[in-house]
Structures are given as structure tokens and as C-alpha cells.
Amino acid sequence: ANISEGFNPRQDAPLPEFNFRFRLPTVVTTPTPPSSKRMLAFFAGGIHGSIRKFLFEQWEGKDPQIQIFQRLPRRQSYKEHMMNAKYCICPSGYEVASPRLTESILAGCVPVPISDGYVLPFSDVLDWSQFSVPIPVQKIPKLKEILINIPEHSYLKLQANVMKVQKHFVINYPPKRFDVVHMLFHSIWLRRLNV
What we know:
Pfam families: Exostosin_GT47 (PF03016). The chain is of the alpha/beta class.
């Protein structure tokens, strides 16, 4: 879903990316209450592409509130880190899309997509400004400043909206109303209307 690579949002449907390594992704059944989240922002992943390289150069090991890891220390849980962060950083890697976007939503963490030219999944139906904080690549050095300056009441609204949109990023078998399968069909149907 990269506009710079010829993606056309009027005819192409941006799809969420999933990581199926272990099992179907699911919603965290007991999310951490917003008042109990201990860290401001979290990301763990490889240095794939220039955006992540820039993120690591700016933030890896530099601020205890912005937890950036190439590899999590032993016996630390990726899912728990996501659940205990207010914001989950979702930078593009070699490709514009990342499963971290879906993982953060399912963990009840406000996603922070960092990319240029990325058309977010289901953006024809979902207003991403209501449940995420998209940041352009050049603003990576101001990441903490941007997140800290979001008032608490605004964060709580973003986080509550993350919980509302979770159902749209869940894979059910068989599919259920409003789940990712229905959202995919809806996105494709909308594009057929634009032909």
C-alpha cells in the first residue's frame, strides 16, 4: 500500500499485515488498563530499511520511556511490552506495511505508524486519526515530544477507540460480522464501485 510504488487507493485495497508464526492473532482478553501502562512507547524488531535505521539511531537505549530493542532481553515478553506501553511504534521496514500495526491494536496499544506514502488498512472506512498517531519519518527525532504532548484525555480517547476497532483486525473461523474478512470484502467492494 505504498503510493510511491504505484499503489492507487481508488482501485487498490490496502490490507493489514499479520504474523502467523505461532497461531491466529487474537485480541488480548485482559488488556492492561491505561492507568497501569508503565512505558510511553515500545518497539522491538530488526533494522530493516532506512526508516528503522533512523529510529534506532535516534532512540535505541537513549530514553527509558521510549523502549526500542533490536532483540528483547531474555525472558521478556513482546506481547507484555506491547500491553504495558501507551504507544506502540510501527515503523515501516523494507516494505511499507508491518504486522506491528495489527499486533499493537490487538494488544490494546495505540499504534504509531511511521512511514511516508503508506495508505493505512481500511482507511476508506476507519478514521485512523481517532485511534493512532501517524508520524512522518522526518519527525522521528521529535517522537517523545509528540507523544508526551498528547493530553491524557486525548490519549484515553485514542486508547478507547483502539479497543473499539479491534474487532476489525481479528481473523475468525468461520468469519464473523465486522471482522477482518468482512472488512477486506468491503474494501474490495468499494473499489469495484470506483471502476
